[in-house]
Amino acid sequence: MNHRKYIYISLKVQDTKRRLRLNTKYGTIARQVASLFSHRLFAPGTRVNRGEKMQLRPSKVALTFLSTMIFKAETRIGEMPSPHMAVGVGKAIVVLLAVWLIIILLMTGPILHSNENDEHITRRLTKAMNELEVLKRQNDELRAILLEFKIVDVDKSKDQLLDDLHEKLNKANELLHKAESGSTNTVCDPSAQFENVRRRIINQVNEMWLYTKNELKVLKTKMDDDKTKIKMDKMIRLETQYKRVILNDLATLSNIDGLGEWREREAKSLSDLIQRRLHYLQNPKDCKNAKKLNCNLNKGCGYGCQIHHVVYCFIVAYGSGRTLILNSKGWRYNKDGWESVFKPVSDSCTSTMGVGSAMWPGYGDAQVLDLPIIDSISPRPDYLPLAIPRDLAARMQRLHGDPIVWWVGQFLKIHVRRTDKVGTEAAFHKLHEYMLHAGEFYQQLALRQNVTERRIYLASDDPNVFAEAKRSFPGFEFIGDPNIAKSAAMATRYTDSSLRGIILDVHFLSMSDYLVCTFSSQVCRIAYEIMQTVNPNAASNFRSLDDIYYFGGQNAHNHRVIYSHESQASNELELMAGDVIGIAGNHWDGYSKGINRRTKQQGLYPSFKATNKLQIADFPTYPEVKQNELSSSR
């Protein structure tokens, strides 16, 4: 009795189970087909498990192998001698053809839909990655808020603490609202290259405008034809409008996709880190045995100069790893000393007592060093201004357009100096010169928002300037106190009222949106420095009528040439890319003045062809002070 045996090939491909039943006589062929189907048509290393969905990929080798098997089957069938097997042979051929067609359909089906499936998977993966990025950012923000809740300043009053907590709760609620709204507007940290190029473009637009405006004005003075002069005035006005529009677009670009939020977050994170390092340095666990730096506040100069002297002392203390002790008794502005006006520089360590005292740079293991003024310190450490710490330099460079100002440091403000600096450090500048730039600021602002009031905080040591300002410029609202100006006169400068007045002026100046002043003024530079702690994107929010920014007693200030320059006149420098220029100043007409360190030649060069050469020095990294979670996650 003949027993018919069957072989089953069971695969699940795209949820379709296909069973092929082959006659035992053709079992060898069926096994070969099954082997081919389960091994050759799938990707190498792929296992086919029961109930598993697979996508087949076509294989020329597989198709060739199938054709060969069918040919062999037909040959074997043709060799069969019994005529009684004709019907069986025909059935076998039909079965083999059916198997062949099924396999072709199985292979080609996934191909027809592969592109569509790939696109669908790509879309889903992209969406998932975006959602993960949003969750990561929200997680970082929540960590930062949690860290802020943990840090409580015990010196603050209850009302201040409650106000701070209320503000933090509002921020947390805003973040929660964003999370619940399902916002997927991701904020990516900008690269350092993007930020540097963006700021350089802004600077180059301004330099081009200064150059073009100055050249047109010079040409105008040489023209006799009135019509030509009128045309040149029109060109200057149109050129100014071009400049405003370009800067407005760049300002929009600066804050697009949350970049403004990133700068505020990064500025706060970096500032908090430095403040915690200073707190650690100024409040050692063992004050008796801590190394100290003694600084005498009474430098023979005015308020702004003395404040910069304290900054210098702090920088040296930070750079040397010593606790700063500020000796301020008998201070010219207040006989009771620094602490009667400001917070102490330390909460727990204010005594210079120690084993061994020496003048800078000291000897052996002297516990206390007396620091001379910056003008006479020798040897001069590398970390004096204009240097910034190496371990923070990358973050500072990406965050700020002038890192040294941020390191040492809204309402429009103008600081007008007319007394002691005139004829010595600074030239006299009429109020009209200041107001030209104030008016330009508001013209620029009008492109971004509706300007209904044009307010100016006016600070000066000349009380007559207030009446002059209101009389000559009725379209502006001037805010300021003429009595402060009176107290700033040389005869009454070192009084309590004068001190309170200048502190008030500096505060309001630093809170403004734009500063017009002379950088030869110490007060102006202090306000500009403090401004950077209020607004993380305020490096270019100023116009100086004389000097560029500097720190009194600083190490050399250099520019690095980024574009070569062929001299166009006898007073111009020949420059090669990479040259270092010792800068003497900016003429605010498209040219700066300096000395080429390579050729030793002095002269003018186009300002846009060079950029600040940042000075980076080794400072202590204070590993005892941990970076906050938000900044360390980057």
From TrEMBL:
The keyword Coiled coil applies. It catalyses: N(4)-{beta-D-GlcNAc-(1->2)-alpha-D-Man-(1->3)-[beta-D-GlcNAc-(1->2)-alpha-D-Man-(1->6)]-beta-D-Man-(1->4)-beta-D-GlcNAc-(1->4)-beta-D-GlcNAc}-L-asparaginyl-[protein] + GDP-beta-L-fucose = an N(4)-{beta-D-GlcNAc-(1->2)-alpha-D-Man-(1->3)-[beta-D-GlcNAc-(1->2)-alpha-D-Man-(1->6)]-beta-D-Man-(1->4)-beta-D-GlcNAc-(1->4)-[alpha-L-Fuc-(1->6)]-beta-D-GlcNAc}-L-asparaginyl-[protein] + GDP + H(+). Pathway: Protein modification; protein glycosylation. The chain crosses the membrane at residues 92-112. Belongs to the glycosyltransferase 23 family. SMART domains: SH3 (SM00326). This is Alpha-(1,6)-fucosyltransferase. The lineage of its organism: Eukaryota, Metazoa, Ecdysozoa, Arthropoda, Myriapoda. Pfam families: FUT8_N_cat (PF19745), SH3_9 (PF14604).
